[in-house]
Design goal:
It is built from nine helices and 25 strands. It is of the alpha+beta class. The strands form five sheets. It has a seven-stranded antiparallel beta sheet. A seven-stranded antiparallel beta sheet has the order 17-16-20-19-18-15-21.
């Protein structure tokens, strides 16, 4: 064997030994890191201050912390316009508008276990986020103008220590109008106002899902379903998460407690406004609750419709009892159970039951508005366009054997005026002929029909459709 081949074999063996040693060291480092992280979480979970008024849990919480997992909390029309509860009490403050004395609580998320947010002012030493968890920071302004990175200054009330957050951009002015804010901090001003204005008040549920605490380390919770419109009493208000800082604990008439974390002013939430529209809709107050007092005003305005039988005049989309959007056929009968306010808009939510006992909801308005592009220039969500009062199965001169054709918008010879009107709606015009007939003319493309219906004047039934 050549000397080159021998040297190659020796080098391969040596490289293999080095790789094995490196892999072994990496495994040991990963193990040590996991152990240290679990120990840190366990220590932090057990050192929260029981007298901290901002820490609240539903009554079934286990006070023995569970530390074997880390997960982020939370993911699992009115004739006269009214000011919403959010707009009335909660002002958004951009970082540019922060004032000395504003208070925040440190609530680290998973990524904050790796990226440290704060440094001690005296020593410039970066501090692990978990060691500051649940501590209250008071804003003291910003400093370091002219330096590479300016600072946002805080005084920690709990340990009487000054800290700062170094901005990732050169100047405070470049950064302060962004939605990023200061990581880990939940704004306590919203919590204080919500606590003052909500505890003891009666609300109605709006969302399909809420949460129940399972332990007191802030990470454990279970999801529960709740029928929309359920009356609940606010039992406590505390701190939730950085994104959704107000934790509202409510109790229903059966004594079940559950909560929702919501964002009011969105001060320092770290989320863009559009991020609240869909996935996080339940994390704004009006996406989870409505004030009973506000809804009473709506109920007084529309109370004559509660308990009334109605049926659809058009096929439409509604939300079923599972929270899914489904298509509903024309001439589907419902009973209106409740009407919920949607403050700041001309819309209300109809809570309805169909003939099979299934629950549905539909947002409608009782205020007439012309909207281009809607059905025949009319509003499909205008109550009096979408619904008719009564039960279509018991309308005079409407026969059950014709109901399926009527639902499809079809008209046949022999139909009565009532059946034609139910199938096609109000005509655009009426006329007479010289041979004992009269006509209903449909010019608009309602249900894709443009036609003239000829009636016998004597029997008032359909002769033909052209």
């Amino acid at each position: 064997m050549s000397r080159l081949a021998i040297n190659s074999k020796i080098l391969c063996k040596f490289a293999g030994a080095i790789n094995a040693e490196v892999n072994s060291m990496i495994r040991k480092l990963v193990f040590i890191t996991v152990v240290l992280l679990q120990s840190t979480l366990a220590l932090q979970a057990q050192t929260w201050d029981p007298d901290n008024k901002y820490l609240v849990w539903t009554k079934n919480v286990k006070l023995v912390p569970e530390t074997n997992a880390v997960a982020e909390v939370g993911d699992s029309a009115v004739a006269e316009e009214q000011v919403s509860f959010e707009d009335k009490f909660f002002k958004f403050y951009s970082l540019c508008e922060w004032m000395p004395g504003m208070k925040f609580m440190v609530l680290p998320e998973k990524k904050d276990l790796v990226i440290k947010t704060f440094a001690k002012r005296e020593t410039d030493e970066l501090v692990g986020s978990m060691t500051l968890r649940y501590k209250i920071m008071e804003y003291r302004g910003h400093s370091g103008k002219g330096l590479l990175h300016e600072r946002v200054d805080f005084h920690c009330i709990d340990d009487d220590t000054d800290y700062y957050y170094e901005l990732p951009t050169a100047t405070f002015e470049d950064y302060c109008n962004s939605k990023f804010g200061v990581p880990t901090l939940a704004y306590l001003g919203d919590v204080d106002i919500a606590n003052r204005e909500l505890v003891g008040k009666t609300l109605l549920t709006v969302a399909e899902e809420y949460n129940i605490d399972t332990n007191s380390n802030g990470y454990g919770f279970e999801k529960i379903s709740m029928p929309e419109g359920t009356p609940v009493t606010v039992m406590a208000v505390g701190v939730g998460t950085r994104h959704f800082p107000v934790k509202i604990i409510v109790e229903d008439k059966q004594g079940r407690q559950f909560f929702q974390n919501v964002a009011f002013s969105r001060t320092n939430s770290g989320l863009r406004d559009e991020e609240f529209e869909e996935d996080n809709r339940k994390h704004v107050f009006h996406g989870s609750f409505v004030m009973e007092s506000d809804n009473m005003a709506v109920s007084d305005t529309y109370k004559k419709y509660i308990g009334q039988n109605v049926y659809t005049l058009y096929a439409t989309k509604m939300i079923d009892e599972l929270g899914q959007q489904k298509s509903v056929k024309r001439i589907t009968p419902f009973t209106i159970d409740q009407i919920l306010a949607k403050l700041g808009t001309n819309y209300v939510t109809l809570m309805m039951t169909d003939k099979d006992g299934k629950k549905w909801k539909k947002d409608v308005t009782f205020v007439q508005e012309d909207v281009a592009g809607d059905i025949d220039g009319r509003r499909e969500d205008y109550f009096f366009t979408l619904f008719a009062e009564g039960d279509a199965r018991y309308i005079r001169n409407v026969r059950e054997e014709n109901m399926e054709a009527i639902r499809k918008g079809h008209v046949r010879a022999g139909f009565t005026e009532e059946e034609v009107q139910l199938a096609l709606g109000e005509p655009d015009g009426k006329g007479k002929t010289s041979n004992g007939l009269y006509t209903w003319v449909y010019k608009a493309a309602i249900h894709e029909h443009r036609c003239t219906v000829y009636f016998y004047a004597k029997s008032r039934t359909v002769k033909s459709i052209k």
